[in-house]
Amino acid sequence: MSLHRLAASFFALISTLAFSTGSVVAQTTVTSERPASFTLGNGLQVVVIPDHRTPVVTQMIWYKVGSADETPGKSGLAHFLEHLMFKGTSKHPAGEFSQTVLRVGGNENAFTSTDYTGYFQRVPREQLGTMMEFEADRMTGLILKDENVLPERDVVLEEFNMRVANNPDARLTEQIMAALYLNHPYGRPVIGWHQEIEKLDREDALAFYKRFYAPNNAILVIAGDVDAKDIRPMVEKNFGEIPAQPAIPAQRVRPQEPVPAAPRTVTLSDPRVEQTGLRRYYLVPSSATAAAGEGPALDVLAQLMGGGANSYLYRALVIDHPLAISAGAGYQGTSLDPTQFSISVSPKPGVEFSQIEQVIDKVISDVGQNTARAEDLERVKTQLIAEAIYAQDNQATLARWYGGALTTGLSIDDIRSWPDRIRAVTAEQVRDAAKKWLEKNRSVTGYLIKDPTPKREEKRS
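The chain above was modelled as a monomer; its predicted structure follows.
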């Protein structure tokens, strides 16, 4: 997908640094300078993150719209528009923006998720004004013609074929998400369903663009060798005259999930499978929707159960019972609406899924009935806090850190105090989170198996 590909490594980072709401406590862990923040009269929120170690700046603009905000029947539209945002304006024809970034020795990219779409450039600090002018221009000045829209749709369809249709693991994830979300649009894949992507057109893209791309639906994050007092006049000059879009609601309201009533399973068989796999997703609250303390407890629970060779699942499945070659768990906390707690296991050849599930269920039962040992709890909290500290060593990572959290309902204080809330998590909170949220009725279990026949459709039960 060249410059416009999905930033998979970024989403892994955001998953690791999942932030949680709750009371703000003393900020004893975050050592980076506190970002400055201000909002223009048209609603554009601006966050400035100083980092004076090198004469480099990262500009990111985050639009608070993603695949979960698409019109039903037009899945993939947010991602399609992300591609089309590089097609030029009347002021700057297609290719000029990207060529300018390359000419000054910078780099750029874009990404689409369920809750946001983002665009960024990393350039020498003296080029920030130029980058800002380009970005402000395409906020409202995009020009689309069929001769560049239709070929780009073919590019997206090819990306679908490469990343999903020809990737059994990705297809399993697609099917699990569709089964986990019965009513919420998180069940739609970010890239879209193939039969809907191929019908997207210029009018669909322009209508979506005009509906959601506006200063009052965006966050501009500037990180690097800059000072907030110098940034505001620059932002006012470039973005200040762009009118707000009054039709954009202050809060995004989406269809929500009913109370889960039964566990579900998905089996995907494909002749290209080289490694069978078992994956289980639980529907759990996100950082933005969790009660006070629950988000950090889920973060700690995921690390305790599946974060490395000392985790409970790894010990049980790889070391104590030689049933698997790998086992892990994760909590995708950065999400506007209820999200996923995942368990992933790669069984050894000849091992039945039922054997794996028995061990998983026992680990979950033990964690939900007994408090974790003090040394285990301290170890995983130290690991999580260390990761947050290391993230502060990279200006682009910091920009992603703040942008991803702010677009999903959190605040600067929530972000900066997250390590302290991790430190405050108790063994009782972890036990209660496991008992409450890792309940079988809230889950979808996916099985990836090798099919010796050339073609076979996945089955859902």
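The chain is about 40% helix and 20% strand.
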